[in-house]
Every structure is written in structure tokens, then in C-alpha cells.
What does this fold into?
Amino acid sequence: MVIAGYASVEMVDKQGDLITRSALKNAFDGFMKADGFRNVQLAHSNIQVGEVIGNYTDSDGRLWKSGVDDAGMFVVIKLRDDIEKAREVASEIRKGALRGFSIGGQAFKRMRKSDAEHGDYTEISMLIYH
It folds into this structure.
């Protein structure tokens, strides 16, 4: 199974963090170069259920590409089919029970900020993905 969607956008998340698009772009480029380490896990379980791939052409001929655009970080993910946990994830996606992504990384530059649009938040301007 191949799925795609935005894994991170430039907005304040549930943890009160806002990762800038430039931080997403810089980290993503390094992440994609780490062939064999673009892991996709279920809820930070340390069980690899898939990997982020560079692109995928669907049955209608549409090309889907991983990258960072004006909206945020878009990922194309190929799920494994050789382990039970990955098959469970695919089933939960088909049922509509799993509908989003989360990213993990190490923030190197963070600053507390406050403004009318976002309220109080931590801006992350440099990170490395895990």
C-alpha cells in the first residue's frame, strides 16, 4: 500500500511547537538522503511499518512526490506487507481509523514566541528528523 499526505505544516501543533518551512526543507533534504533510514513507525512504536519514498505514480498516471512545498512537508509512504503490524496499519487506514501523520526529530534552534495569530508557542527553526 502506498499512501501520501502532509506530515507537517507551518502551524502551531498540539505540543505548542511551530516548525518553520525552512527548517522542514533543510531537515527533509538530509532525511531523504539517508537511504535505508527513512522509517515510518506506528505511534513512535519503534516498529518500522514502512518508509518514505521519493515518488510514486498511481494507476491513473498521477505522480506523487515527497518534498516540502508552500504548505509544508508532503510525504509518500510505502507500507510494508511482510509483518503483521504493517498489515494492521494498512487495515486501520482503509477503515479510516488512522488519518494523520506525526514527525519526530531533534530541534536544534528553538525560541519562545508570542503573537496575535498563534498565541504562545515555540518556534523551531532548525531540526533533524529521526
About this structure: The longest strand covers residues 105-115. The two ends are 22 Å apart (CA to CA).
